[in-house]
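Thread: zinc ion complex, take 2
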Amino acid sequence: MRAGGFVKRFVLPLFLPLTVVLFAAAAPDKAAPSGADDPARRFTLTPLADGVYAVLRDDRPGFMVDANNLLIINERDVVVVDANGAPSITKQVVAALKRLTDKPVRYVVNTHYHDDHIRGNQVWREAYPGVEFIAHAFAREYLPGQGAINRKAFLTAAPGFLEDLRGALKSGTGLTGAPLTAEERDSLQSDVSLAGLVLGEGDKAETVLPTITVRDRLTLERGARVIDILHLGSGHTAADLVVHLPKEGIVATGDLVVWPVPLVGDPQSHIAEWGKTLGRLRELHASILVPGHGPVLRDDTYVKTLEEMFTSIAAQAQEAVKSGATGDAARRKIDLQPYRQSLAGDSPVRRGLFQMYVAQPAVAAALREATEKPAAGASDPAAGSGAASAPGSSVAIAAVAVKSSTASAPSPAKAAADEVRATETAFAKTMAARDHAAFAAMLADETIFFGSTRVLRGKAAVSEGWARFFEGPDAPFAWGPERVEVLESGRLALSTGPVFDPAGHRTGTFNSIWRREDDGRWRIVFDNGCPPCAAAAGK
Ligand SMILES: [Zn+2]
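Output below.
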C-alpha cells in the first residue's frame, strides 16, 4: 500500500542568459532574466577570490529553483560544491569550468541529498572519471532508500504541477482568480521553463552516491588551499554540510541559507536546531556567503534574520505546547508577522513562498519538535549523530504542494492538504526506516485496515498485523501520496497514491482516510489498498 514521500525538492532557479558573465557581486534585486531563455544556461559566474568562483543561478524567486555551485580551483585540481537538478544544467557548469581551467575535478561536495544538489553528479563523473563525491553520512543512507522513493513520487506527480503553472500563465490569472502581476508572471515563466527541463530529463540521471562521507568535519589540503567541509548541525536537513575556505573568508552554505525565503520541509527540517546551526555558521566569520539559492551575501545580516526567526518559531512552539494548546489553537499562537514582513514584504510571490516554505512546514515541524522533545531524542540531530536520524521527507513541497496555490497564500484547506501530504510521507517513511513504533503511533485508536483476506480493526490489531512488514532489513514495499483532498472542515482527508515494490515498480494504489485528532495531529482511520498491492502488502 503506501509509498514514500513526495519530498523532493523541486526548487530550481536559473540565471540569465547563457554566457558566462562576470559580475563582482550579484545584488538581490538586480535586473532579472526573462525566464524564456534556456534554463540550462541561466547562470552567472562570479569570481570571489583567486581561483574561487560562484556559479549563481539567476531565477526569479519561485517554486522551482536550482542550486548554486562553488568552483574552487587549486594548484593541481578542482573542488566543486554541489551538482545541479538536471544533467543538461550540470553540463553547462562543466563547460564553464573548462573555460577557466583544464585541471581535473577531484572532489564534488554535495551539501545535502536533495535532487537539485546531487542529480548532476553523474555528469561530473562522466567528465572527470576519477572524481570522488563527498556528502554527509546520512545522505549516503537516505539516497538509495527514501530518496529513491521520493524522487519517483515526485516525477509521478510533478507533471500535473507543471500543467497548473502553464495554465495559470496561459489564462493570466492565478489560482485565486486574481490577475497575475508582472512579478508573478516572471516567476511562473521561470518555474515553467525550469520544471520543463527537469521533467524532460525525467529519471535519466542515475543517483551517484557519495564515495566519501562526513559526520562532523573533513579538511582537504590542496596545496596552499585549505577547504573545511563541516557539519555544523542540522537545519534544512539532518545531512547539511557547509564548505568553508578559512583563508579566503568564503563559505558555501548549502540550503541552510536560501534567499529570499528559506526552504523548510516537514519532517526533514529541524527548526530548533536550525537557529543554533546558523549561529555556528556566523561564528565562522566569513565575509562572503554563497547560499544554496540566491545571490552572494556579503555580510551576515540575512543569516541573522533567519537565525532569529527559527529560534523564535521554536520558542513560540514550546510555549504553545506548554500552554496546552493543540492543533489550530497552537498554530495561531505562533506569530510570524515580523518575519513575513521582513522576508516577503508586499511581494505576492514572496508571500506565497513564505506561506509555502515557512508558515506551514516550519510551524508544523516546530510544534512537532516541541511535543516530541521529552519522548524522542531519536530524530533530534542535536544529539550529535545526525546520520542516525531518519528525517523522512521534507521539502516535498515545492512541486506538489504548490499545485493549487500559484504564488498566492494558500487557503486553509490547502494548508491542511499539505499537512496530510507531509503526514502520509512521514507514514511511508516509517516503513523505509524500519520503524514499527513510529508506524503504530500514526494509527488512530479505532483505525480499520482492509487486507486481501481479512480486515484489521483497531490500532492493536493493525499494529500487530503489520509487524511482519517491519521485519528484516529492507522494506517490502513503499508508497507516496499522489492526491490529497481535505474536507472544508479540515478534519478529514483522503490520501491516495502509488505503491511500489522494492525494485521500484508500481504494484498498486493505496487509499487512506486521515482524521485530525484533538492533539492537532493527523492519524489514519481507514486504509484500503487496491487488488494488485494486496499480495505484497496484505491489503
Ligand atoms: Zn536546494
